[in-house]
Amino acid sequence: MSVPCGKFYCRETRRAIERQNRIERARRRNEEVSNVRNIVLLAKENDPRILAANKAARDAKEAKRQARLVAVQKRREMEEEQRKREAEAAALARAASEERRRSEAERIRKERDLNRSEAKRERRQLRSILVEQLNYFVDDKIDTSEVGSHQVKILADMDLLCQRLSNAQLHELNEYLEQAGTPDKAHCIFSAKVESVKHELQANNLQSQTKLRPENSPSTDSQTNASKWTTEMIQVLVKAVNILPAGTPKRWEAIAAYVNQHISGVSVSGKDVLKQAKLLKEEDSNLRKTANTKAFDSFTNSVKETDAVKNVTITTQLEGLFYNKINLFEFTSHFL
Question: Ranges for the Zuotin-like zuotin homology domain (predicted)?
Fold first, then answer.
């Protein structure tokens, strides 16, 4: 209960009354707030409209959560299905590639076997024509002592043709030999074919040699140049090595250019210069060792035993004896 504060009260009384009124107001305010809170809670618990709204909110939230879960599940299922399809497609592609590779290998094997069998048949037919039908082209013009060498030559030419000609060319040659009619004509056809194959081999050899010659020519030139180092060239090389010290970019190429520039008619490379410099270094070290050895030997032979040397030796002996006596004195005084 609040107490009225009039002017007839003293100051202390008024202050006490104000404190009491402030406390009472706070109590009543808290009580009012508590009553309002209780009313609100009671309404939330019992009002059907609020209950329906809360239920609708919960249902909507649950529906969103379920929809999100369903979407995640569908996405996972789609990803899993996509991975399965990709794996199946990759497996099918691998199987198809393996099948193609196997079929290609089988086709190549069959073709190789067929070509091999055809080659055997054509070679056998060529040998039959040359040996059985034409008898190595042996006639009365050939001496009896040369029949063996002639047969060996025909067999060697036949092997050359079998190695160099294809199956179609062998088949064509066999047909020409069978249709020749006479052994002389067949011999001419056979000899012409052998000569054409030999000319082709010679042309291939010449072509391969011309291709290899430019690659081998620089090395031979460098070897010949490296083997012809004159005294003037060595002097210029030493000067260039001193002018261009270690650490110079492309040092040996620069030294080679210096040598080529200062000596006319000479062409050396960096490798040649490096090789010659190493040889000069080895020779210089060997000469230096030999000179040092000879100088030391001559010095030992020229030195004679003088009085000064003898005195030095005696002095050394006396000093050793003196130090031995001192050590003996210290050793005995230690026990005294």
Answer: 10-50
Helix, strand or coil, per DSSP, at residue 57: helix
> Rounded mean pLDDT of 14-25?
92
- Cα–Cα distance for residue pair 122/168, rounded to 1 Å: 9
| Number of domains within the chain | 3
User: 240 and 197, same structural domain?
Assistant: no
Give the number of other CB atoms < 10 A from CB of residue 161. 20
Please count the CA atoms within 13 angstroms of the CA of 260 that sit on its side-chain side.
Answer: 14
Lowest mean pLDDT among 121-125, 272-276, 327-331: 327-331
- Rounded to whole angstroms, how far apart are CA atoms 176 and 185? 10
Structural domain includes residue 79: no
Q: Are 267 and 221 in contact (CB under 8 A)?
A: yes
> CB of 186 within 8 A of CB of 126?
no
Closest alpha carbon to 229 in 288, 282, 277, 261: 277
What span, in angstroms and rounded, lies between the C-alpha atoms of 126 and 73?
78
Q: Are 271 and 285 in contact (CB under 8 A)?
A: no
Confidence of residue 286 (pLDDT cuts 50, 70, 90): low
Output the six-digit token pair for 164: 């160099």
Q: Which of 197, 120, 186 is nearest to 156 (CA)?
A: 197
Whether 196 and 117 share a structural domain: yes
157 Cβ partners below 8 Å, 6+ apart?
A: 190, 194
What distance, in Å, lies between the first and last C-alpha atoms of the chain? 118
Residue 176 belongs to what domain range? 111-137+147-207
Residue 73 lies inside a defined structural domain of this protein: no
- Can you give the pLDDT at residue 95? 93
